[in-house]
């Protein structure tokens, strides 16, 4: 679904300071999650956000019929333009399938200190969420998250809704502890990145690493148009997927809880600017302690259609699950100039350039799994508001096949 307003501002903050959020192990499977793990609005919700200054924004949300709300404040340095919900590109306002960009070493875009401060109060529970980001150097980012709530409520330290938390931030606070502080240090050098986290509630220490393998010169050279007199066998190499591999792992340990965990993963993604092949992302992760193996394959079949499938298997219990999903973007079509069919490369490039022809007016996401879980989500724009409508069903339940139906409205403006 459309990302919450604080997450939208955080994305713009990352973009402005040149920080690649895809180049971290936490986002290794982000492309497949955008299609297979999208959230469905549980109730009717409305969110109104305003940015009177480039450095300051406010956001208020209300959910019915539970009558729960929240009030959030954001402060960003240097200031950014958040845009308007009525004119922003829908593709940039939600989670979607995309090929990760080529990794590059971050640079400091501003001579002054860059930081992001976010606070949110939940009503009537009085839960308080806080997030603080500070750019220590061009390649180092400090992240601090805080969750505070009444002692009667269960506590989980969770950053922004769509931001993958470090391993230590999902530990449950027990006893009388009602506040959890999580410190996370991220380092990005382009070819490799690392992340170190510490949870004060239970002393959980975690580390994540991601290494991007070098792209061979053969794969880096763009495909040239083939002459008619060239050997036809060269088509074999032209049709092979050209891309890059990324290897990563995570490990965490808590002496207080006497628990530990480890996982590893690999990702293959095609080159972002390769016109002759469909954008493709293939991932595989393995958790040896839990015995969980997951493999996902996602590709863009057409400029507006992306397909993805995932297979989960446990080597200890032999439980398995297959999930399939699709993402379709609806556009107002424009007339395209046809390319010569004798020029194969020109035809393919013209086909994929169609993705930029016409305004996006909606997105339909669907997923189904062997556990009989089916979900549909439609996202669009109603006047100047973003609207999301979703349905989640369980086909095995005759008494209650519809598990959730929700409608979500969002509006934000910088005027």
What are its keywords?
415 residues; Porin; two-stranded antiparallel sheet; transmembrane beta strand
Mind explaining what this structure looks like?
The protein has one domain: Porin. The two termini are 25 Å apart. It is globular. The chain is built from 5 helices and 21 strands. The strands form 2 sheets. It has a 19-stranded mixed beta barrel. A two-stranded antiparallel ribbon has the order 7-8. The relative contact order is 0.16. The chain has helices spanning 5-17, 30-36, 217-220, 235-239, 344-352, and strands spanning 44-53, 56-64, 68-77, 115-123, 128-137, 140-148, 155-156, 172-173, 179-188, 192-199, 204-212, 243-254, 259-270, 280-287, 292-302, 305-314, 320-331, 360-369, 373-382, 385-394, 402-413. With 415 residues, it is mainly beta. Mean pLDDT is 84; it is low at 154-159, 161-175 and 221-237. The longest helix has 13 residues, at 5-17.
Describe this structure in a few short sentences.
With about 425 residues, this protein is mainly beta.
The radius of gyration computed from the alpha-carbon positions, rounded to a whole number of angstroms, is: 23 Å
Please count the beta strands (DSSP E, at least 2 residues each).
Answer: 21
Helix residue percentage: under 10%
Based on helices, strands and strand pairing, what is the structural class? mainly beta
| CATH level-4 homologous superfamily | Porin
Number of separate domains:
1
- Assess the beta-strand content as a share of residues: over 45%
Major β-sheet annotation: 19 strands, mixed, barrel
């Amino acid at each position: 679904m459309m990302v919450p307003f604080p997450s939208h501002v955080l994305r713009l903050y990352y973009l402005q300071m040149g920080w690649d959020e895809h180049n971290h192990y936490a986002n290794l499977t982000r492309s497949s999650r955008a299609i297979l793990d999208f959230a469905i609005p549980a109730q009717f919700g409305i969110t109104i956000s305003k940015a009177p200054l480039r450095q300051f924004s406010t956001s208020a949300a209300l959910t019915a019929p539970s009558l729960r709300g929240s009030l959030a404040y954001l402060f960003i340095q240097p200031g950014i333009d958040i845009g308007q919900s009525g004119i922003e590109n829908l593709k940039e306002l939600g989670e979607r399938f995309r090929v990760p960009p080529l990794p590059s070493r971050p640079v400091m875009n501003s001579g002054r200190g860059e930081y992001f401060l976010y606070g949110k109060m939940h009503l009537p529970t009085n839960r308080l969420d806080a997030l603080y980001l500070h750019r220590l150097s061009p390649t180092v980012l400090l992240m601090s998250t805080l969750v505070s709530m009444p002692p009667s409520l269960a506590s989980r330290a969770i950053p922004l809704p769509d931001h993958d938390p470090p391993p230590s931030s999902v530990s449950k606070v027990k006893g009388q502890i009602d506040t959890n502080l999580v410190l996370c240090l991220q380092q990005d050098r382009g070819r490799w990145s690392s992340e170190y986290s510490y949870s004060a509630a239970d002393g959980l220490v975690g580390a994540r690493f991601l290494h991007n393998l070098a792209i061979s010169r053969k794969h880096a050279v763009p495909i040239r148009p083939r002459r008619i007199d060239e050997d036809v066998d060269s088509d074999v190499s032209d049709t092979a997927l050209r891309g890059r591999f990324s290897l990563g792992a995570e490990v965490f340990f808590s002496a207080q809880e006497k628990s530990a965990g480890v996982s590893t993963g690999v990702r293959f993604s095609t080159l972002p600017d390769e016109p002759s092949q469909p954008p493709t992302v293939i991932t595989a992760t393995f958790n040896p302690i839990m015995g969980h193996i997951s493999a996902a394959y996602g590709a863009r079949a057409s400029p507006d259609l992306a397909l993805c499938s995932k297979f989960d298997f446990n080597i200890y219990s032999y439980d398995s699950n297959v999930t399939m999903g699709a993402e379709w973007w609806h556009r107002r079509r424009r007339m395209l100039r046809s390319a010569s069919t004798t020029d194969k490369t020109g035809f393919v490039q013209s086909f994929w350039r169609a993705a930029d022809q016409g305004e996006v007016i909606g997105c339909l996401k669907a997923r189904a799994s062997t556990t009989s879980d089916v979900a549909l989500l439609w996202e669009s724009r109603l006047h100047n508001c973003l609207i999301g409508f979703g349905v989640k069903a369980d086909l095995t339940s005759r008494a209650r096949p519809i598990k959730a139906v929700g409608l979500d409205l969002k509006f934000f403006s910088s005027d």
